[in-house]
Amino acid sequence: MRQFSATLEAPTSHEADEIRHSQVRIARKTSVSNLIEEPFHGIASDYDGVVERHDRKDIADDIRPLFVDNSLAKGLPLAFITGKEYADAITEIADPFRAAITQAGIELKPEEFWIYCNNGSNLIDVGADNALIEQREFSHKQLNTITESEAIRALMEIYEVVDELRGRLGFHPDTEATHFRQEDNSTICFRIDPDNIRQSGAPLHVLQALKRAGGNMHPTRFDIARKIKAELARLGADDLVVSPTDRSVDITPPGSGKRLALEDFAKRTGINPERILRIGDSPTGMDYGLLAAKNNEFRGGFTNVTLNESELVQIQSDPDHFGTTPPVEINPGADQFDNVIWLMNNITTTPRVSSAWSS
């Protein structure tokens, strides 16, 4: 791939007014002005909430070609770093993108377009016929250790009661907010929404299980993740990655996580991490691994926020997720996908000298 440098064009006065009323979130040394002015040499992005959302699948048909035309077609290496399991990453990301790339008349080569799925546990090289380059999986010992966590046992108890009582006795929790999922051996996903459970007429023993899961009467997903992490550490599995998201608490094998995936992408492409444009949709544990300000190597933005106020307070005070400086909220108000469309439509590129590629 020919090496290019890219920048974002300054918006017109009308566009600037719209951007000021959008939901882009920028952190650390990134501001609207230097997001526009500073060059970048590759793009690393979350997928859900950036290209599509579970309730906005159709928007991918608009955004997918923009990534193709304004990243791959312009010589910028691209990586999606996503929580999707391997099978879903192939059918929902790789295959539709390969079709869009073919339609655009682009010859995609190996090591130009990566998908880090299962929150960085597995790596797919789309340009090498969707080859699975790396795979991390739980050992039997790790799976057994996970089941010994009191918090996880409490979550499983909640799921059992939800399955039994949903729709009865006035108990109507959101189906998407209360279920366990493990489609492969690289991710365990606990979908949990404590607020929804409390507000849906949960019986007392469910509320007591929720307390055991999070350590207090009104736990957030971050409380639950913190308790699971502490229990796994006591059980000798402190290398397992436990991450709260805006809809779940995910556990992945050692060596996974969006930040490590980003570092791997930088090494494989030879791009300085400071020169990678990073895009995420909400301030979750995993996306902060992708976007947080650590060691000053950050330039990127959030397109949306779905956490409640107490969760925001928690994550803003957690240096493991934030780095040393929390994101600054700017431009509240517009549709999150409008921000992605603006970003993609305003990328301009110029050829770079090879020696300056990693600077």
Defining key terms:
39% helix; nine-stranded mixed β-sheet
Q: What do these coordinates show?
A:
By secondary structure, this protein is α/β, with parallel strands linked by helices. It is about 40% helix and about 15% strand. It has helices at about 15-20, 30-35, 60-70, 85-105, 140-145, 150-165, 195-200, 205-215, 220-235, 260-270, 285-290, 310-315, 320, 335-345; strands spanning about 5-10, 25, 40-45, 80, 115, 120-125, 130-135, 180, 190, 240-245, 250, 275-280, 300, 330, 345-350. The strands form three sheets. It has a nine-stranded mixed β-sheet, with helices on both faces. Strands 8-9-11-10 form a four-stranded antiparallel β-sheet, with helices on one face. It has a two-stranded antiparallel ribbon with strand order 1-15. Strand 6 and strand 7 (about 130-135) form a beta hairpin. Helix 6 packs antiparallel against helix 8 and helix 10 (about 260-270) runs parallel beside helix 11 (about 285-290). The longest helix is centred in the N-terminal third of the chain and has 18 residues, at about 85-105. It is elongated, with a radius of gyration of 21 Å. The relative contact order is 0.19. The model is unreliable at about 10-35, about 290-305 and about 320-330 (pLDDT under 50).
